[in-house]
Amino acid sequence: MPNPADARPRRPRVLDELGLPKTLPANAPDFLPLFGTGPDALLLGLGPEPEGLAELLGLRGHVRYVETPDMAEQLGQDWRGRIPDGFEELPADAFLSVASSSRVILYRPGPRLFPGFWGPLVARLQLSLLPQAPAPDPKLVWLPGGEADLLRLELREAFEGLGYRVRELPDETALRALLAGGECPALYFSVNFRGLDLIGEAAHLLEAAGARIAVWCVDNPLHLLSGIRSRFWTRLPLFVTDHWFVEPLKQLGAGLVRHLPLAARAQDLAGPARPPSPARADLAERLVFVGRSAFPGKADFFAGCRVPDAAWTEARRLMDAGGRPDFGWWLTRLGIDRLWPGAEVRKAGFCAEEAGKAWRTDCLARAQADLSGALTVFGDAEWRPLLPEGTDLRGPVDYYAALPDLCASAAACLNCTSPLLPHGLTQRHFDTWAFGGLLLTDATPGLDLFPLELTRAITFRTPRDIAPRFKALRASASGAEGLKNAWRAELARAHTYAHRVQAVLEAVGLG
Predict the structure, then answer these.
(1) What does the angle CA 485 – CA 430 – CA 486 come to, to the nearest 5 degrees?
(2) What CATH code is assigned to 135-263+501-507?
(3) What is the DSSP letter of 242?
(4) CATH classification (class only), 266-494
(5) Residue 6: which pLDDT band, with cuts at 50, 70 and 90?
């Protein structure tokens, strides 16, 4: 008997914008009518079977079309020979002149396969349909995301302090509605690509309207890119909290990448330091750690990833000797050289995250033992099986409501930097001092952002160094106060969110 599969039409395959093979469908639902009526038609993409389009789409009048050069080249002369004689090809920069008098039909797969070509074209088309073209407001910033999102309050304060009005956008629907109403920002500032879809449609639309777009990668940038399926990001100004990523991103094609560390809120540094809270008096002699055992969504993000046994043994030896098996180390150890496109970098990220978990656990366990239990951990319940029996584990705390008093009231706050950022810093490197606290941190290379005389006294390289360093800091009350004052002065001088926002504005040409 004949195989039914043999009767199915064989669809041609092309390599998309990222070099990945994709099959081209050619059914009626694969062509989306955008707008317009009448006999003439403008086809944005022909698909693999142009000879059947007149019947498939009911084309009766003059047909014009635009096609992706890359797709046309891959489909070859046979495909070109099957384009009906009456179809007129238009250059991409000339289609708008006929769009308003035509029935406009989009080949649906096109923007997904070649977003770098179709994205700007479709964006220009969408804006041409608006009753009034939006014009950028030179003093307006849009921040995509909700009020509870990462750094939302800090960035809003910083932009407003520099004379900008800030609008928060919960999703892309709000973006499109606002543009349709004539509003357009001078700057669309995204944290971790929030508010930018995976193929760049929102970015193309904003750029067509005249807005500047910038992205601050607060987390590992290669993790953030692992889900993106277009090269639109290479045209955007990128800012990274860890300068280790600057060169890898440039090698992937990024045009502008700048180091932009985290910072402190200026208002937390204004005036005298926050005094200890009477309600937290029980922390006055204790080392305090605040943090999660793992980031939210870790299991799903790293699905299918594992740590090779031999590599883990090497990583443990390195940590025991005071070294850091960080993200870069794992890329080399696992032989990962394809950083993007694709999600292979997540394998290294998972290993670095597991190393970070082990590092935090080692530090907390050793501190608990060497300080005779004078350790308090504020975090989730998953810490319980990881910590020694009897460790003072309390629940998570609200960053804005409770953390300031914890930092101001504790003898010192312990920080363990994630190796997901090889040369990174955490928010704790800034806010502990801003809140009036005293920080004890591992020796991440990112500390070279600050003067050596400030970092020397507060860093440790191995877990066994934590207790001696803590006791040394506690030995002189005047010395600890002097250190706090010096750190607060340094942060106020150059490391507030106002400083960071000003750097962004200058980099994108708005400063």
Answers:
(1) 15
(2) 3.40.50.2300
(3) S
(4) alpha beta
(5) very low
